[in-house]
């Protein structure tokens, strides 16, 4: 036996000095007190311990998910108003920003959520060392989120896999994503986020190499990748870029937190200890680059992004993860905390009307009115007279269908059946509504990301359907080619203004087919002055292709 029987005497090492990876500055968040119930202080082993009841956790979570589906941060609203006041903003930038402000004002009434995609419930908690609970924190916080979705006019977006290919909506928006960390002393701190599918889908990880780490190469790399974000997630964006990370998952976690401005209080320079920091100079460079792209707030202009956060992280010498992500115009996150003094939630803006201009400006240029109750042939002939980027006002009947309904209709074609007349005689609107409040014709009902239906277009148009499509975001070249081949059109609507559409534009909603699909059913809706833009026309012109997004 040549192996040593014991470890050798350890070599002397210097004392350990811990440097937090994310050394955040003081919390300057304005909070409101929710309650003092369920919180008390008790002595344990001579120390004051904060004892938090299960109900305090549940009620804080319910209040958080109620608030973030109806209210926005004042800073976000100020940025929208700044677009209206900017002489360099395009007419379409201003039209979209004004629509968002009107939407925020309607959502603040507490009935219609600001977006029909009311999101996945995401909860992050940081539990202090002197905080005691009954140990069921994840369940309590998830229950509060569930209660908000059940009690309010919010959409259930979570589907449970029954097998690899079968799924069923959970009908309560559960499960929530809940992560709890041990951090701090005598308080319990939280971030609550409702993350819609559109913005979540615009989260990208690139496993780059250290050769990218020169200024010119990195900026060129980022410009190319920022363009891949497109407009489907409802810009203007809060864009987050993270360079580095001790793992791929930490890189992407940091992207999400940075997009919510959770890491704004990081230091602005690095150190030999390896702390994360914000690069303020690069943030301004990237912001100027996004303004020069011409994409704008969905339909051309300057405001592709409200702001940019660039976070630099330490990394393994052989790896360079780079992450991109956005928070969209439904900018839904809120901070919370529980201390010995009570349960608190970040104070969001309950009076967004103060950011509206005193007189409604004529924004967005001239408007072409389209009567959707005319025969499809006449609708197509009218649209054919106008170029891409033309602003439209739609009145009449539309059919609503998206992923699941499209799959059902494709099954018909593949069985040798025809498309139903309603799908050929009316424009199709890609959307899925939130719950309809009592006394309303519709719940929040904004457009879905169009790209998810790209693979259906050529087959459907060849069969006489999908001749006029309405949704948000850029589309694949195959859609452009199909419209040129079959004489179809793709119209873009404003993503992120679902409450405004429900309040002012959608007058009647009824199920046409497949009610078992829930919000994915095929619906018939009647609309008045529904705003849209011509994005792809029957000649093969594509607005987004001009911006290298097509």
Topology:
Blueprint: E1 31-35, E2 39-44, E3 47-52, H1 54-68, H2 74-85, H3 91-107, E4 120-127, E5 131-132, H4 137-151, E6 159-161, E7 167-169, E8 177-182, E9 188-195, H5 197-200, E10 204-208, H6 215-227, E11 237-245, H7 248-259, E12 277-278, H8 280-292, E13 305-315, E14 320-327, E15 333-339, E16 342-346, E17 367-371, H9 376-383, E18 391-400, H10 403-414, H11 421-425, E19 428-429, H12 457-462, E20 468-471, H13 477-486, E21 489-492, H14 498-504, E22 506-513, E23 522-536, H15 543-546
Parallel strand pairs: 3-5, 4-8, 11-13, 17-18, 18-19, 19-20, 20-21
Antiparallel strand pairs: 1-16, 2-3, 4-9, 6-7, 9-15, 10-14, 11-14, 12-13, 15-16, 18-23, 21-23, 22-23
Helix pairs in contact: 1-4, 2-3, 3-14
Characterization of the model:
This protein is α/β, with parallel strands linked by helices and 550 residues long. It has 15 helices and 23 strands. A six-stranded mixed beta sheet has the order 1-16-15-9-4-8. The chain has a five-stranded mixed beta sheet with strand order 10-14-11-13-12, sandwiched between helices. The N and C termini lie far apart (69 Å).
Can you tag this structure with a few keywords?
550 residues; alpha/beta; six-stranded mixed sheet; five-stranded mixed sheet; 15 helices; 28% helix
